[in-house]
């Protein structure tokens, strides 16, 4: 046992877990918002890819990670705008459009990357870590949780901000009503289409940001289909979290640990085929679905386009 | 006096309708309706299903726009463009189907609709609610989740919501349909207190007793038209019995120029003949969204047409499906020519000669994307001579289908046309052809002319009469009283899943059935 439980191994594992968890967290929070408002957003993988590509391009040419996050979020939102127009305003099938967006963006981002960078994969410099004083000195936990890029802490803060939004604000009420009983929201004088559009666009921004983090901080480069199912894991997280942002955070960390094991075990020199380890997050998904999926309560109007006066 | 024309606009009207017409594909839901709605009055809109009450509400609450005519608010013509606009004009609606978010609390539901950037003003709401509930004498659990409330409590929340938003006109759409008798009385008392505070109320119902008990002014709707109005002066002058008989006359009275009127040719049913269908104590357990049946008994002799009258949704469909074998009966017996069939499957019952024409022609009766020809034989799929060894015998099917198309006058471009492309009347002919084919002995018709135009209605009725004349037993379920009166030998009335009376179709049948339908003794 060459230090499977050594400090270095554990802190590397947990550090990797957090890095891997942030895109899942952002995607999960975004998906949660769409689903709360009654839109099943299967296109989130495509939004993440758009965010990853545009985020990388933004950061690569400007030299600023923050500008990269901004262009990434804008890219995710642009894809979300298509989704909002087709699925919310026109009322097309959310699953079909979602799959089309994901597949379309997979191809489009690969193509654009090829045009822009040919066959090279330029890297970004490593992201600056914001080291939290004192806390970062704790053994194992310190280096694992308190030496990350500032955006990581902001993402965690967002979890609580979202909790406040859902529980304490008018917009939170409207979002929930749009998903549970849109007709009631409509007769209360609030535009259901507008409410759902706000939710889908926010999802796009969060997913795009998640994608940008994945490329710019997690990997430091863009490769085609870099998201590798992170958006779909976000959908699972949103379904399991039953409307609670904090549960998305826990779920994202759990999946993050699974993803991080892949690299950590290689570092530790344990000889398990990487393909087996890469299956871990998806195995975890299935186990969690079996354990908790039955009790997952989804909004009553999820996936159903709203049409005034329809019965 | 009861005026048929639209009432003249009065300054005191909060809302007035002038010649409002609304059409949907195939039907005129509202035909040039005039109404005046005044503060301090409960204005009852009375009418059967399909009378156009809900469409009228849709237009007042901003969900739908009239095709013709105009709506005046405070005397000014005002198109009500959206639910938000209706609320801003002071029109609050309590819909037939609850419009509360079940996962939110009462307070959250009341706060729904505020500007989205604001924090919900809970304290303000609590004070306002306390004030309103005190003056109305109701109690509301503000912090309970809506899904935990009874339907009556939910309705009070909806009324409260309208009050919190300073509504001047409160519309209650079929609000008593889901309430207990006690809940109905409480609602009546609450409405009285509200109009005393100067509110205007539009109360929609199909129950005559409620109209007489709670109303100040009654407008009667029938098939989209306003057929009469009883103003408050007259309301006060008449006794309850006189009002009721006047409304019965308005609702069920025969119109002189009714094109559907056909004199029923009396044909003798052999009273001595053994019944073809004998149903005894048929019982079906209720489900979440449908009433059950409680000990239904009747019999039908050869050549006889027994009608089932009643307001829609009182167990008609359950009765038809239980007889056809599509719904599990929890008790009772069904005998066809003396043999018990209640344990047989749908297919076996059909084999024995029991046929069911569903009212859901496209959903349940046919497969819309299949060609007309196949739809004739949907219930014989796999059976010779149209299928042999599991293989479709195209020539055999087309030959027989062509005969049926001719015999039943199905207007179709070709045998291969998907049946859903035909008009409702022609789809009905396909169903008739299928169900009346060889071996039929007892036929159940569920709303056979619902949604059909006049020509097809008359053709379908003639087909049903011919069926009985051939010596078959016919059960005719319909919500159209005229239809039953023009066709049946006897008419039974169903209410809440039970037969509340059976009436011979004699001269006084109209009044007697009408009274049974609205919950009075025949």
Write the layout of secondary structure elements.
The complex is a heterodimer of chains A (311) and B (522).
Chain A: H1 7-36, H2 44-62, H3 65-89, H4 94-117, E1 130-131, H5 141-145, E2 147-148, H6 150-168, H7 170-180, H8 182-187, H9 192-219, H10 230-240, H11 245-267, H12 274-292
Antiparallel strand pairs in A: 1-2
Chain B: E1 15-24, E2 27-37, E3 42-46, H1 53-60, E4 68-73, E5 76-77, H2 83-88, E6 91-94, H3 106-111, H4 122-136, H5 151-164, E7 169-173, H6 181-196, E8 200-205, H7 208-214, E9 217-222, E10 225-230, H8 232-237, H9 240-252, E11 277-284, E12 293-300, E13 305-309, H10 316-324, E14 331-336, E15 339-340, H11 346-352, E16 354-357, H12 361-365, H13 372-376, E17 387-388, E18 391-392, H14 394-407, H15 424-435, E19 442-446, H16 454-469, E20 473-477, H17 481-487, E21 490-495, E22 498-504, H18 509-517
Parallel strand pairs in B: 3-8, 3-9, 6-7, 7-8, 13-20, 13-21, 16-19, 19-20
Antiparallel strand pairs in B: 1-2, 1-4, 4-5, 9-10, 11-12, 11-14, 14-15, 17-18, 21-22
Helix pairs in contact in B: 7-9, 15-16
Defining traits:
heterodimer; A: 311 residues; mainly alpha; ABC transporter involved in vitamin B12 uptake, BtuC; 12 helices; globular; B: 522 residues; alpha/beta; Rossmann fold; 2 domains; six-stranded mixed beta sheet; 18 helices; 22 strands; elongated
Structure description:
The complex is a heterodimer of chains A (311) and B (522). Chain A has 311 residues and is mostly helical. Chain A has one domain: ABC transporter involved in vitamin B12 uptake, BtuC. Helices cover 71% and strands 1% of the residues of chain A. Chain A is built from twelve helices and two strands. Chain A has helices at 7-36, 44-62, 65-89, 94-117, 141-145, 150-168, 170-180, 182-187, 192-219, 230-240, 245-267, 274-292; strands at residues 130-131, 147-148. In chain A, strands 1-2 form a two-stranded antiparallel ribbon. In chain A, helix 3 runs antiparallel to helix 4 (94-117) and helix 3 (65-89) runs antiparallel to helix 9. Chain A is globular, with a radius of gyration of 20 Å. The mean pLDDT of chain A is 88. Chain B has a six-stranded mixed sheet with strand order 6-7-8-3-9-10, with helices on both faces. A six-stranded mixed sheet of chain B has the order 16-19-20-13-21-22, with helices on both faces. Chain B has helices spanning 53-60, 83-88, 106-111, 122-136, 151-164, 181-196, 208-214, 232-237, 240-252, 316-324, 346-352, 361-365, 372-376, 394-407, 424-435, 454-469, 481-487, 509-517; strands at residues 15-24, 27-37, 42-46, 68-73, 76-77, 91-94, 169-173, 200-205, 217-222, 225-230, 277-284, 293-300, 305-309, 331-336, 339-340, 354-357, 387-388, 391-392, 442-446, 473-477, 490-495, 498-504. Chain B has two domains: 15-103 and 167-252, 3-Layer(aba) Sandwich (Rossmann fold); 283-517, 3-Layer(aba) Sandwich (Rossmann fold), CATH 3.40.50. Chain B has 18 helices and 22 strands. Mean pLDDT of chain B is 84; it is low at 1-9. Chain B is of the alpha/beta class.
């Amino acid at each position: 046992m060459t230090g499977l439980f050594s400090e270095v191994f554990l802190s590397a594992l947990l550090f990797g877990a957090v890095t891997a968890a942030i895109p899942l967290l952002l995607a999960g929070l975004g998906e949660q918002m769409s689903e709360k408002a009654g839109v099943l957003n299967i296109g989130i993988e495509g939004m993440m890819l758009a965010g990853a590509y545009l985020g990388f391009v933004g950061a690569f040419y400007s030299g600023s990670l923050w500008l990269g996050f901004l262009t990434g979020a804008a890219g995710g939102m642009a894809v979300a705008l298509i989704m909002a127009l087709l699925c919310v305003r026109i009322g097309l099938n959310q699953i079909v459009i979602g799959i089309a967006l994901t597949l379309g963006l997979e191809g489009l981002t690969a193509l654009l990357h090829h045009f822009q960078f040919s066959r090279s994969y330029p890297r970004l410099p490593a992201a600056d870590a914001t080291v939290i004083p004192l806390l970062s000195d704790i053994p194992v936990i310190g280096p694992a949780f308190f030496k990350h890029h500032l955006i990581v802490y902001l993402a965690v803060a967002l979890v609580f901000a979202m909790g406040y939004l859902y529980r304490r604000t008018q917009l939170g009420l409207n979002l929930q009503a749009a998903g549970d009983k849109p007709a009631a929201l409509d007769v209360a004088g609030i535009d259901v289409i507008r409410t759902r559009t706000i939710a889908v666009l926010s999802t796009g921004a969060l997913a795009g940001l998640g994608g940008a983090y994945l490329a710019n901080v997690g990997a430091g480069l863009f490769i085609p289909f870099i998201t590798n199912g992170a958006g779909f894991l976000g959908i699972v997280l949103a379904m399991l979290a039953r409307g609670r942002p904090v549960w998305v955070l826990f779920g994202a960390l759990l999946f993050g640990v699974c993803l991080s094991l892949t690299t950590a075990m290689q570092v530790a020199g344990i000889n398990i085929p990487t393909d087996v380890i890469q299956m871990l997050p998806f195995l975890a998904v299935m186990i969690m679905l079996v354990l908790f999926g039955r009790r997952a309560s989804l909004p009553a109007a999820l996936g159903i386009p709203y049409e005034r006066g329809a019965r | 006096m009861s005026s048929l024309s639209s009432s003249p606009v009065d300054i005191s009207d909060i809302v007035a309708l002038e010649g409002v017409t609304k059409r949907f594909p195939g039907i005129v839901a509202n035909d040039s309706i005039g109404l005046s709605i005044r503060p301090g009055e409960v204005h009852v809109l009375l009418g059967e299903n399909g009378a156009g009450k809900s469409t009228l509400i849709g237009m007042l609450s901003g969900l739908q726009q009239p095709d013709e005519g105009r709506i005046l608010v405070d005397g000014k013509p005002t198109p009500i463009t959206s639910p938000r606009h209706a609320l801003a004009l002071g029109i609050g609606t309590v819909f037939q189907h609850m419009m509360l978010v079940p996962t939110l609390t009462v307070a959250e539901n009341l706060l729904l609709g505020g500007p989205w950037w604001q924090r919900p003003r809970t304290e303000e709401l609590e004070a306002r609610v306390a004030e309103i509930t005190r003056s109305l004498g109701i109690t509301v659990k503000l912090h309970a989740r809506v899904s935990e409330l009874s339907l009556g409590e939910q309705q009070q929340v909806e009324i409260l919501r309208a009050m919190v938003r300073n509504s001047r006109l409160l519309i209650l759409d079929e609000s008593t349909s889901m309430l207990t008798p006690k809940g109905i009385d409480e609602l009546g008392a609450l409405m009285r207190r509200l109009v005393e505070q100067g509110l205007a109320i539009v109360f929609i119902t199909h129950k005559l007793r409620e109209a007489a008990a709670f109303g100040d002014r009654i407008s009667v709707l029938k098939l989209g038209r306003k057929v009469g109005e009883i103003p408050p002066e007259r309301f006060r002058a008449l006794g309850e019995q006189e009002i009721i008989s006047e409304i019965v006359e308005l609702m069920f009275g025969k119109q002189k120029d009714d094109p559907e009127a056909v004199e029923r040719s009396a044909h003798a049913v052999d009273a001595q003949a053994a019944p073809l269908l004998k149903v005894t104590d048929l019982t079906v357990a209720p489900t979440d969204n449908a009433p059950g049946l409680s000990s239904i008994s009747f019999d039908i002799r050869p050549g006889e047409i027994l009608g089932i009258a009643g307001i829609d949704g009182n167990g008609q469909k359950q009765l038809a499906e239980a007889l056809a074998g599509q719904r599990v009966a929890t008790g009772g017996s069904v005998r066809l020519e003396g043999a018990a069939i209640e344990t047989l499957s749908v297919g076996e019952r059909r084999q024995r000669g029991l046929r069911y024409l569903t009212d859901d022609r496209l959903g349940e009766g046919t497969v819309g994307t299949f060609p007309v020809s196949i739809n004739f034989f949907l219930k014989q799929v796999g059976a010779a001579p149209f299928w042999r060894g599991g293989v479709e015998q195209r020539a055999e099917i087309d030959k027989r289908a062509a005969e049926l198309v001719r015999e039943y006058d199905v207007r179709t471009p070709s045998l291969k046309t998907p049946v859903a492309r035909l008009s409702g009347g022609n789809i009905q002919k396909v169903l008739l052809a299928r169900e009346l084919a060889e071996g039929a002995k007892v036929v159940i018709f569920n709303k056979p002319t619902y949604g059909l135009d006049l020509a097809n209605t008359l053709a379908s009725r003639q087909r049903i009469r011919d069926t009985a004349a051939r010596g078959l037993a016919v059960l005719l379920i319909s919500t159209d009283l005229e239809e039953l009166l023009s066709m049946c030998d006897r008419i039974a009335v169903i209410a809440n899943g039970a037969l509340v009376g059976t009436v011979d179709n004699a001269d006084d049948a109209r009044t007697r059935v009408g009274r049974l339908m609205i919950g009075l003794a025949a």
